[in-house]
Design brief:
Chain lengths: 259, 373
């Protein structure tokens, strides 16, 4: 499934985003290949979340093209857009579960919108999604406020998986989790990735996650993206990248991953 | 081609041929066909996936769940040409106990009784908490005599601006319009008796004693009572109030008292504006509809109102302000964790403060009659 020969799932060319005078992205290019786990890192304010919002079509870029599955996300009709959003799943930084709905209802939300299913199959699918992310059936009836941080992240992932997308966008999936929960989340991600053949694009600052899961890494520096494998990144001479991948935390994480 | 399944065979040997689109989109249709499958399936079953296109997770799960139901050890299933995620789903299903159907507690006589009891206890606790809340506000204000900084003058000024000055246009407009309406209806009736001039009495007493302050209070309850509840509620959700407490600051002192004081200052001032606008509206209508000139209107006004009429309305304003401010901030502080709570308690804040304002107004009316005020 993984291969450079297949067309990229996500393709960004010459992306420019600015807020007033401040230029966040200045001709950013990005290709995400089918079947890989792609990590995006960058300093605070370097525009990681803006990039994600642009790729999702939540923000219109000031210049440049964003394509998902070869389709320009800014030039879609209503029905094309509806078809496109069913082909990817997203989790947001704080879960973004709808707080007035139970976990099961949150998972069923996209299913109710896009599929006409009986109540029994909706319940069965919610149960399936919970099972996939390793949550017990008792979580289904709980409200988001009753969940722990790790459970919220898993429930958000379950909702993202509800429409069986092949492409996942994760915004800081392990932020705010304790190391054990974060490691368990990494395991889950790798597991789902291998079992379901997912392509994953992930913003993360968790170096452990980065070392353990990501095949390739994109670093946003100076408004552009530098893409390389982890080994390549370790040898990159750019000062910010050096500081990021050779800092004391990075060394510890690397030893952990390879040692 | 849409997804379908066909069962053939007899006795101990069955073959289930799956064909066509078995992707997630076809789930509804596949569910229906699975439901129609004979329930007493037993023996050996070969599940043939070779005719399917891109089988999805949902339909696979539905099939497995359906087979698991008719399989208390009597059905042997072998999958041919199965999708790669089949094994994964089988593992999940094996480790999953079907969620038990929600049990309904039996209905009994005690249940309504129990609910009444619970409600009563809850109301008692609410009342006690509300009195406690009032006590904490009074304590902060009392402490402010020794430490004037605790009154947070800057914050008070900001809230007077928000709740008072910014409310002037809407309060003025509504007071004007309502008194025009009252004067118009009154004029229609009084004209029949040739008692046109008493429209002035009607408008003056209605506006000054009741409507000016009551309308203003209701507008402010809708405008600022809800804002208080929502602002403080969001701070509760974001743990800002906890942060204040952890830094040794009192949320009552910081958030509640400035708002309540600001409202106690702003509402009487707004009432005066509403009174003036109400009288202007009545005067304008008398002039246009009944040809009562301004000079006659004002001289009649002097006769119509006792020295106490104006004060009878205005005295109520600070009391109403106290009720609105306290209910709004109290409900805001009750918000816990979720957006739904925030919406519910904001609604409660507005409804309850309007109710309490009207209740207090009724009590004032009784009191004024007793005092002959």
């Amino acid at each position: 499934m993984t291969g450079a020969d297949t067309p990229p799932v996500v393709r960004v060319r010459g992306l420019v985003n600015r807020f007033g005078r401040q230029i966040v992205h200045d001709g950013l290019d990005l290709d995400v290949r089918s079947g890989e786990i792609f990590g995006i890192v960058g300093g605070s304010g370097s525009g990681k979340s803006v990039l994600l919002r642009t790729i999702l079509g939540l923000k219109r870029p000031d210049a440049g093209v964003v394509e998902l599955y070869g389709k320009n996300v800014d030039a879609t009709t209503r029905s094309e857009r509806a078809a496109l959003v069913q082909r990817f799943g997203v989790t947001f930084q704080n879960g973004a579960l709808i707080s007035s709905l139970t976990v099961a209802e949150n998972i069923q939300l996209p299913l109710r919108e896009y599929r006409s299913l009986s109540e029994e199959s909706l319940a069965a699918l919610a149960d399936l999604c919970l099972a996939m992310v390793g949550l017990g059936a008792d979580a289904a009836a709980k409200f988001p406020a009753q969940l722990s941080g790790g459970m919220v992240k898993r429930a958000a992932l379950a909702r993202a998986l509800a429409l069986e997308p092949k492409l996942l966008f994760l915004d800081e999936p392990t932020a705010g989790l304790d190391p054990i929960s974060a490691a368990a989340f990494d395991q889950l991600l790798l597991y789902l990735h291998s079992q379901l053949g997912l392509t994953v694009v992930m913003i993360t600052h968790d170096l452990d996650t980065l070392f353990r899961t990501c095949g390739r890494i994109g670093v946003i520096v100076d408004g552009r993206m530098v893409v390389d494998t982890l080994d390549g990144m370790m040898r990159n001479p750019h000062p910010w990248i050096r500081a990021y991948f050779h800092g004391p935390r990075a060394r510890a994480a690397e030893q952990e991953a390879h040692g | 081609m849409s997804g379908s399944l066909a069962l053939e065979g007899s006795g101990e040997d069955w073959r289930l041929s799956l064909r066509g689109d078995w992707s997630a989109r076809a789930l509804a249709q596949i569910e229906r066909q699975l439901g129609a499958l004979r329930p007493d399936l037993a023996g050996n079953l070969v599940c043939d996936w070779t005719g399917t296109e891109a089988p999805g997770i949902g339909p696979t799960w539905a099939l497995l769940a359906r087979l698991a139901r008719s399989e208390p050890g009597r059905l042997n299933v072998r999958h041919v040409g199965a999708p790669p995620h089949l094994e994964f789903l089988q593992q999940l299903l094996a480790g999953r106990i079907a969620p038990a159907a929600a049990e309904r507690a039996p209905v009994s006589v005690e249940q309504p009784l129990e609910r009444v009891g619970r409600w009563t206890v809850l109301q008692g606790e609410e009342t006690r908490a509300a009195v406690g809340f009032l006590g904490r506000i009074v304590a902060v204000i009392g402490a402010a005599f020794a430490r004037p900084r605790a009154l947070r003058l800057k914050s008070v000024v900001r809230h007077v601006h928000e709740t008072g000055i910014k409310a002037i246009p809407i309060v003025a407009l509504i007071a004007f319009l309502i008194s025009v309406i009252v004067a118009y209806l009154g004029a229609q009736q009084l004209q029949r008796f040739g008692a046109d001039i008493f429209v002035v009495d009607l408008v003056a007493i209605a506006v000054l004693r009741e409507m000016g302050v009551l309308l203003t209070a209701i507008i402010v309850a809708g405008r600022s009572g809800s804002a208080f509840a929502a602002e403080i509620g969001v701070m509760q959700i974001n743990e800002e109030t906890d942060a204040l407490r952890a830094m040794g600051m009192n949320p009552i002192e910081l958030l509640v008292v400035p708002r309540v004081i600001a409202l106690v200052v702003a509402l009487p001032l707004l009432t005066i504006i509403a009174d003036a606008m109400g009288l202007a509206g009545g005067g304008l209508l008398s002039h246009l509809q009944l040809n009562i000139p301004w000079s006659q209107f004002t001289s009649r006004l002097h006769e119509a109102i006792a020295p106490t009429t104006f004060w009878a309305g205005l005295i109520k304003a600070p009391v109403f302000a106290l009720l609105i401010g306290m209910v709004g901030t109290y409900r805001g502080l009750q918000v816990r964790e979720s957006a739904r709570e925030l919406g519910r308690l904001t609604t409660v804040a507005v409804v309850q403060s309007i109710f309490l304002v009207i209740l207090a107004d009724a009590l004032f009316a009784v009191l004024y009659v007793r005092l002959d005020f």
